[in-house]
Write a structure and sequence with these properties.
It is a single chain. 36% of the residues are buried. With 318 residues, this protein is of the alpha/beta class. The chain contains five helices and 20 strands. The strands form five sheets. Strands 7-9-11-13-15-17-19 form a seven-stranded parallel β-sheet, covered by helices on one side. The protein has a five-stranded parallel β-sheet with strand order 12-14-16-18-20.
Length: 318
């Protein structure tokens, strides 16, 4: 059951929808940050795949098929290939169903001979009209994926730990605007290549791992609107956050007082701490950017700061 959930979780990358926002500045920051982040990610965009057929062929090349289940995957009429369904008259792939015909309860040799294995190629994101993909009981050993988008996909339940998948190349993940109701996926802090993380507008709970601040490439983190993600703002903002540009912790259960060391976030452009449980006085002075190569004033790149709906007192320092 968990394996099937993980497969469904991963293959929802094809819901390529972005989380909306009413804040124009935030939209621009998100777009600018994400576009800049793409330039830093060492991966393949598969720009050469100009058709659904070519995307399917590349997907096939990533699979081991010991029983030749995909023998029909040749020629130009890809809408008639095994497991493929196209939208009428449009020749766009809307469904891929490669469910193993044998369950794990059958003799192991029957199941293993019919299973597909190895990796899911990123070329699947080229199938823009794909709405259904079933690889249940497929033995995936490696996920060669830089981008994983599951925004607005009506997903629910828990976010599973991908025990049998390799996420070391993952640079961008969006799970925003779903109905996940589970503890925060702490395994994300072990993905050192992450640049972009958006898990806003879910129902995640538990403690926000401090390890996020140590990710060497992270530029964007949005966990807004989960409601019960906990953490001490003093501890969170005292960490390094080496490349962070957008940090949205609003609408959660972040508590404590804001440290003066916030000024060391050299590249921060957008900070949202609104609708939390922050208390105490605002720092009378903000520490200078000790670790910034430019040696400029504190928070030199900050464009927008949101602190409303807390219990803070005092004035913002100059």
């Amino acid at each position: 059951m968990e394996r099937n959930l993980i497969v469904c979780f991963i293959l929802a990358i094809l819901c390529l929808l972005a989380c909306g926002s009413d804040i124009t500045t935030k939209k621009k920051l998100i777009n600018d940050t994400f576009n800049m982040s793409l330039k830093t990610i060492d991966g393949h965009f598969y720009n050469g795949l100009s058709s659904d057929r070519e995307a399917l062929i590349d997907f096939k090349h990533g699979l081991e098929d010991p029983n030749d289940r995909l023998s029909s995957w040749k020629g130009s009429n890809y809408c008639h290939w095994h497991g493929i369904t196209c939208e009428n008259d449009m020749k766009v792939v809307i469904s891929i169903d490669l469910l193993n015909p044998y369950s794990l309860d059958n003799a192991h040799e029957d199941w293993s001979s019919m299973t597909l294995s190895r990796e899911i190629r990123p070329s699947l994101v080229k199938l823009k009209s794909l709405k259904y993909l079933d690889l249940s009981l497929v033995s995936l050993k490696h996920l060669d994926m830089n981008f994983l988008y599951l925004a607005n996909c009506s997903l629910f339940g828990s976010i599973p730990t991908p025990r049998f998948l390799n996420f070391t190349s993952l640079a961008a993940i969006s799970l925003c605007s779903n109905n996940f109701n589970s503890k925060f996926p702490e395994w994300l802090v072990n993905v050192s290549n992450l640049v972009y993380v958006d898990i806003s507008y879910n129902k995640l709970y538990g403690r926000l791992p401090l390890g996020f601040s140590e990710l060497p490439n992270l530029e964007y983190l949005d966990i807004f609107g989960n409601g019960d993600l906990r953490g001490g703002v003093f501890q969170l903002l005292r960490k390094s956050w080496r490349k962070i540009k957008v940090l949205n912790l609003g609408g959660n259960n972040i508590h404590g007082s804001i440290p003066s060391s916030i000024g060391n976030l050299c590249h921060l452009r957008y900070l949202d701490l609104s609708s939390n449980h922050l208390v105490g006085s605002l720092p009378e002075a903000i520490e200078g950017p000790e670790n910034c190569s430019s040696g400029r004033n504190p928070l030199p790149d900050l464009i927008e700061l949101l602190l409303n709906n807390n219990q803070l007192t005092g004035n913002l320092p100059n």
